[in-house]
Write a structure and sequence with these properties.
By secondary structure, this protein is mainly beta. It folds into five domains: 1-100, Complement Module, domain 1; 112-159, Ribbon (Complement Module, domain 1); 164-240, Immunoglobulin-like (Sandwich); 253-301, Complement Module, domain 1, CATH 2.10.70; 311-430, Glutaredoxin (3-Layer(aba) Sandwich). It has six helices and 31 strands. The strands form eleven sheets. Strands 29-28-27-26-30-31 form a six-stranded mixed sheet. One of its GO terms (molecular function) is signaling receptor binding. One of its GO terms (cellular component) is cell surface. Disulfide bonds join 130-157, 272-299.
Length: 445
């Protein structure tokens, strides 16, 4: 309701505008007509309520002297007078109206939005939602309160969704021939995220396109988005080295192998010790099917020439290759010789393991014989041996020579094989020969 402003005409012709809500008290008491029910026009208040009390009581709302209280509905604020009175001038003492209250416009939140039930007016509720991959933190909604302020606090949209990454499948690679590694390549995985378009994918492990060692190699990738949400994946690179069974070295010989010795493509070559020669293929190769090509080779005792004319020609064949055990006896019926044969029976294998060749000198001229196993020696060679090493025909004796032909020990009584072998092992074998002997000791059992 709005009360009009009165205009008063003065004698000078000037017009005086009364104030918007002011009124002038009369010096005289007006004649109040309480019987006129419409002294002032009936007050009204849009979006509000007018409560009036008349001196006459009852339903008289606009009689002279009536006072009205003005109040606004919820969501509206009263502007103007909260209490007005019907004056003698037939005007109300003031005016008022109800203005709708509003809250401030809510700011947009990054990576989110909101929708409101009635805009920004009182009791309107605004619900917040976040973009895919983000989650509301704090309040999910805010309400415009009667005082014109929003309830709660402005929420945030936090990136709570981790990125996604998928590693390539695990793979098996066979090492190339002669190698213990394999070169393996793959395409790095691509990572995606609902919030971030570009992501930094980090490799934890060996780079693709490099040589991987035999066995299992675990490759990991991890990725972080801008909110430090993390995702990871892994796969296995398995390198298989195809292998053949280990080749045993030949008796009286050794092997030298390339690469790791028994892997696919490895080549092993046979070598024989002094006094032995190779029988069979000199080398074998490990095939893809885990088998060696060819057959195993052997190291067999060299065939020495017994029909040489001089002792030096004979000894040169053994130099740095074999040791010699020269046994001398007056004849084959000699008691010590017979005892020696009994005690050293079946010792050929043990002598071979120790690289010992036996030469027998038996009897006296003209029936004197010299032999290496079944091969007979000439008389000049027999005489040369006796003179070179001072071997008598009169009694049983044994002379042990090293590989350089040096006289190392003499025995004038028969000796059991264990005693003879113990002496050879202790004083004539080098470290490498001892190791080989231990490796093949059971060969003669």
């Amino acid at each position: 309701m709005r009360v009009e402003v009165d205009r008063l005409e003065t004698g000078s012709g000037a017009t005086v505008h009364d104030g918007y809500n002011d009124f002038q008290e009369e010096d005289y008491t007006p004649h109040l007509d309480y019987n006129d029910p419409h002294w002032c026009h009936s007050p009204g208040l849009t979006n509000g309520e007018v409560t009036c009390h008349s001196p006459r009581g009852g339903a008289h709302r606009s009689t002279l002297g009536t006072r009205c209280e003005m109040s606004c509905d919820r969501g509206y604020r009263l502007l103007g007078r909260s209490s007005i009175q019907c004056l003698a001038s037939r005007r109300w003492s003031g005016t008022a109206y109800c203005r709708q209250m509003r809250c401030r416009v809510l700011a947009l939140i990054p990576h989110g939005r909101y929708t409101c039930t009635h805009g920004f007016v009182v009791d309107s509720r605004c619900d917040f939602t976040c973009d895919p991959g983000y989650r509301i933190e704090r309040e999910h909604s805010r309400t415009c309160q009667h005082g014109g302020s929003w309830s709660g606090a402005q929420p945030d949209c936090s990136d709570m969704d981790p990125p996604k990454i998928k590693c390539p499948p695990s793979r098996l690679k066979v090492a190339e021939p002669g190698k213990l590694t394999a070169r393996v390549t793959w395409d790095p995985p691509a990572a995606t995220d609902t919030a971030d378009k570009s992501l930094d994918v980090i490799l934890v492990g060996q780079e693709p396109g490099t040589d991987f060692n035999e066995g299992l190699n675990i490759i990991r990738y991890k990725v972080y988005d801008q909110a430090r949400n993390r995702a990871a994946c892994k796969f296995i690179v398995r390198v298989e080295v195809r292998r053949c069974t280990l080749l045993p070295p030949p008796l009286h010989g050794s092997l030298t192998c390339s690469s790791d010795g028994n892997n696919y493509g490895a080549t092993c070559e046979y070598h024989c010790e002094g006094g032995y020669e190779l029988k069979g293929a000199s080398r074998r190769v490990c095939q893809f099917g885990r088998n060696w090509d060819g057959n195993a080779a052997e190291c067999v005792a060299m065939e020495f020439k017994s029909d040489v004319k001089t002792v030096s020609a004979l000894l040169d064949q053994f130099y740095e290759k074999r040791r010699l055990l020269i046994i001398s006896a007056p004849n084959t019926s000699d008691t010590d010789y017979k005892l020696h044969n009994i005690m050293i029976q079946k010792s050929d294998c043990g002598l071979d393991l120790r690289h010992v060749t036996v030469i027998e000198l038996l009897g006296s001229p003209p029936r004197e014989t010299g032999r290496i196993k079944e091969s007979l020696l000439g008389s000049e060679v027999i005489e040369g041996l006796r003179q070179a090493f001072r071997i008598s025909r009169s009694y049983f004796s044994m002379v042990l020579l090293d590989k350089l032909g040096m006289d190392r020990e003499r025995f004038i009584t028969p000796m059991a094989s264990d005693e003879l072998f113990s002496y050879i092992d202790s004083f004539l074998l080098d470290e490498e020969e001892r190791e080989r002997l231990e490796l093949h000791r059971d060969f003669c059992d």
